[in-house]
Write a structure and sequence with these properties.
Structural class: mainly beta
Distance between the termini: 77 Å
CATH architecture of the largest domain: Beta Barrel
Order of helices and strands: EEHEEEEEEEEEEEEHEEHEHEEHEEE
CATH superfamily of the largest domain: Trypsin-like serine proteases
Largest sheet: 6 strands, antiparallel, barrel
Number of helices: 5
């Protein structure tokens, strides 16, 4: 019989089987992800031109997405800047220039003066589940290559963004309890396979580093935004000129449309494409070119550049019946 303090692992067919604690498995995942991604995460020093030269504007992080120098970061990190310097884990310091920034998604692409970078693998945030392990890598408080880990504490959050006089809701934002600090913005939020599923964008809480971190998800929608920034330096969006919110349809509307939810139009901007087409408050928007819309996010995803300047058919419910309205969206101006 084994005495207290002398317990041993049970013997297996080939001898003692070592105990494997959950912490060891957790540590292996985190260290593997860190080793894979740290070479792909840069520290950014953002510079702005002032009379007589340049001055530092701030700092942040960025994730390499192509070997020839494209990096993904947060739009607020490079806000109004043209470039700066990027430092990598191997000690290299190179200049970068801003290719394009989209404040309505808080995403930006910069181009570093390097051609042999190690790109990260982009994942799909739509496959995340609450409680899943995530690892944040960035440069908080100027400490390069810092790693923190936690779990997805909530999904489906949203944050408001603005560009000029226009506002937009960034949907499906990832909420995590991984520790984030100033400088993490633009850095990678990765899953246990080392795939980047989010771009860290904000710290929530009464004090820095406490509370909950948020990350813009990497998914099909945001990858399309990144592609547009790389290709054109901007994101073109169609503009209707309405504001509203999701609303369950009344029983009569359900019976008439076979739908349970739509977007109630609360405001129509004077002179906008929606106003010219005859849309008005209290209309219930059901679909766009036959594609159902149940919330503002659905409508935002459909207002893409290919709908600018061409007729778009909207299905609406008004006065107890379904109608169609043709509208010609214009381009959303900054």
């Amino acid at each position: 019989m084994l005495g207290l303090g002398h317990d041993r692992p049970e013997a297996g067919p080939s001898g003692p089987v070592p105990n494997e604690s959950p912490l060891d498995a957790y540590s292996r995942v985190v260290t593997t992800v860190a080793a894979r991604l740290i070479p792909s995460v840069a520290s950014l020093r953002v510079m702005v031109r002032v009379p007589g030269g340049w001055r530092p504007q701030g700092a942040g992080s960025a994730v390499v997405i192509t070997p020839d120098g494209h990096l993904l970061t947060s739009a607020h990190v490079v806000d109004r800047a043209k470039g700066g310097g990027a430092t990598f884990a191997d000690g290299r310091e190179v200049d970068f220039e801003v290719v394009g920034a989209d404040r309505l998604s808080d995403l930006a692409v910069v181009r570093a003066a390097a051609s042999d970078l190690a790109p990260a693998t982009l994942g799909d945030a739509d496959r995340l589940v609450v409680g899943q392990l995530v690892v944040a890598i960035g440069n908080p408080l100027g400490f390069a290559g810092s790693v923190s880990a936690g779990v997805v504490s909530a999904l489906g959050r949203s944050i408001p963004t603005t560009q000029g006089s226009h506002g937009r809701i960034v949907e499906n934002v990832i909420q995590t309890d991984a520790s984030l600090h100033p400088g993490n913005s633009g850095g990678a939020l990765a899953n246990g396979d080392g795939e980047v599923v989010g771009v860290n964008t904000a710290v929530v809480g009464p004090w820095v580093g406490q509370g909950l971190g948020l990350a813009v998800p990497v998914n099909a929608t945001t990858q399309a935004i990144v592609s547009a920034l790389m290709r054109e330096g901007r994101v073109r969006r169609a503009y209707l000129g309405i504001a509203g919110g999701s609303r369950p349809l009344p029983p009569k509307a359900e019976r008439a449309t076979g739908r349970t939810t739509g977007i109630e139009i609360l405001t129509v901007v004077g002179g906008s494409p929606a106003a010219q087409a005859g849309l008005r408050p209290e209309d219930l928007l059901l679909d766009v070119d036959g594609v159902p819309v149940a919330g503002v996010g659905d409508l935002q995803r459909l207002m893409t550049g290919d709908r600018i300047g061409r007729p778009v058919t909207l299905g609406v419910f008004r006065h107890g019946r379904r109608e169609t309205v043709d509208v010609r969206p214009t381009e959303l101006a900054g």
